[in-house]
Amino acid sequence: MLTCGCAAPRAEHRSHDGARTVAARQTDCPAPGRCAVSVTVHVWFDYICPFSLIARKLLAEAVAGRDVTCVWHPFETNPHCVEEAGEYPPGAWNRLVTPLAARYEVPLAGAPQNPLRRARLAFVGYQYALDCGAGQAYNDRLFTAYYYQWRDISDPVELTRLAADAGLDPGRFRDAVLSPRYTRRHLDALDHARDREAITSVPVISVAGERLDGFHGVPEPALLTKALDGAAG
Asked: What is the pTM of this model?
């Protein structure tokens, strides 16, 4: 989606499928057709996917200084697994994650101490964070907690502490993640991703409707920059 990109304040909103977006509010354009256009980037992610962490860093660098609207869509890689600690396949982290993280200068000491098979409760909390306009702060806090502090983002008590760190009211957050309302909203978002968008793995980055290829979904920075430049005209 391309729109006139005159400078305007940005505000956080939630889309119909439970995604988070930072969008410029509508303003009158003093020079139609001559100012830069705003580019929409859609990203599907999973907290427990280390490639989502790497893609976040590359995207943040690529969009810096640009008029870009980023929409973050939740996606569970393993929606039918029990929500408990598991383990990575032997050697998978060192063989796949460590080299890619080093290549793109994403500091990772190692795999999370107790890697999760899924993190549904964290995603249910994300839906509440979106309603509070704190989707970005919530995601930043959870990725940091899971990969750098090795905290259990599937535990309701731990998750509530992290939500408070992101500026959310602990009591209201706890009630929200245990409510059917936000669980249903998250499940609807999953259905939309799988059935309407044909998402089967993450990360997936789409720039102005064009999905970018990459190793385990992580596009080369040059490809990402080229796509953003092309979308901006």
From this structure: 0.83
Rounded to a whole number of angstroms, the distance between the first and last alpha carbons of the chain is: 12
- Enclosing domain of residue 113: 2-232
Per-residue burial over 7-28, b = 16 or more CB atoms within 10 Å of its CB, e = otherwise: ebeeebbbbebbbbbebbeeee
Q: Count how many domains the chain has.
A: 1
CA angle 15, 19, 21 (to 5 degrees): 75
Q: What is the pLDDT of residues 19-41, one digit of tens each?
A: 444 433 222 333 333 345 689 99
Alpha carbon 54 to its chain centroid, in Å, reads 11
Which CATH number is 40's domain given?
3.40.30.10
pLDDT, tens digit, for every residue of 179-212?
999 999 999 999 999 999 999 999 999 999 999 9
In the block, which residue shows the tokens 């460590």?
98
